[in-house]
Amino acid sequence: MTFEKNTLKILEKALGELEAGFGSLPEFDHSLDLDAVQDVIMQVVHRMQDNYPYFHPLYAGQMLKPPHPMARLAYMLSMWINPNNHALDGGRASSHLEKEAVAELAAMFGWDVFLGHLTGGGTMANLEALWIAGRVKPGQKVVASQQAHYTHQRLSDVLGLPFEAIECDTKGRMDMNALRRILDKGDVGTVVATIGSTGTGSVDPLAQILALRQKYGFRLHADAAYGGYFVLADNTAPETRAAYDRLHEVDSLVVDPHKHGLQPYGCGCILFRDPAVGSYYNHDSPYTYFSSSELHLGEISLECSRPGASAVALWATQKLLPMTRDGAFAQSLASCRRAAMALHGKLSADERFRPLFAPELDIVVFTPRGDRISEISRRSEELFRTAARHDLHLATFTYPCRLLDATWSDVDMDAETVTAIRVCLMKPEHEAWLDRIWAIMDETATALSF
Hints:
Elements: H1 7-20, H2 34-48, H3 69-78, H4 92-108, E1 115-119, H5 122-136, E2 141-145, H6 151-159, E3 163-166, H7 176-183, E4 188-194, H8 206-216, E5 219-223, H9 238-244, E6 252-255, E7 268-272, H10 308-320, H11 328-348, E8 353-355, E9 363-368, H12 373-389, E10 395-400, E11 417-424, H13 434-447
Helix pairs in contact: 1-3, 3-10, 4-10, 5-6
């Protein structure tokens, strides 16, 4: 069975119980032309088949992790109410569930005092972090590594804040010497530390950045949209673990439940260590904030309407799979990490392949071997396309050759960038499927005569 469908039986039972809670209301007509509905939904089915199999373990391309059945079930159930978590008037129960779920996320990072809420995704969450940074450090520069998500440069432009990208080291992490040189200029207000870059999964050296903050006094934001949940994993390398152990010291933090948190799109989360930044959101909305003197989530959010269904789904998932270091959820992250390390080991031992460097989390980046960058890039494209014809879906990734000079001295650098293969082993099933994935890669490389 490709799709999990057993939870649909639970949904029907739950809907009956939910409906009973509104039993005092007079009935009204729900009549639909079911034949017409079925006709249209079957059209949707056929259109949706034009997709890569994102849900399957043989899909290891982009950061697409299927939602947990619990999240899907809770989300669907809540849609019969369709709450809006902007104000308690539009999403009373779901707003409380959001506050509880976000508090559990904050506790995962060591914060019991904080300000935070869910967002439509990491982009909006990072926007809020940089907006607050711009209010705290008005007009001052935002810096992030060259391998940080492009959204930071774009959002800085939207906010009218100057931005500068910092060079990276040979492992795709922010280079500390380059950061010091820019900090010495005296115009940096905010440093963005990437905790799991979307390209290579690299984790910026947070302990060293914190030491620089003590000297230079900048605001520190952690973009942990992808990598944040690995704070729970017990098998990261010591250097990576050192960064996670100090995440609680940053000023703001973004994590995306719709990545490793097993949630449907879109579900991001912004957290601030100091609740006092809530004063920057100060506004009044008499036509929405009228039923309660309790905090409305819209009072601490740049977004207005937000789906309460996201909060319901996240809350339910975290009740089933608590965010603890000894729980099943944490073990699933450790499994993804083991899969990445195992694949890296296979690639390193095979003369046909060349990893860029050892993975820090669960993303593996490698290339076929070759004498010239242009040849390597061509082979990567061939491997990507041929593997897909065997139902193994990977991704390509463009990486700067200057970061490879020290380790690829035997390669003719006849181009500025190299096309590499990027494998996201984000699914808990990937560890069990690794032999199958490797068999397809081996067969593909053999067919291409690498």
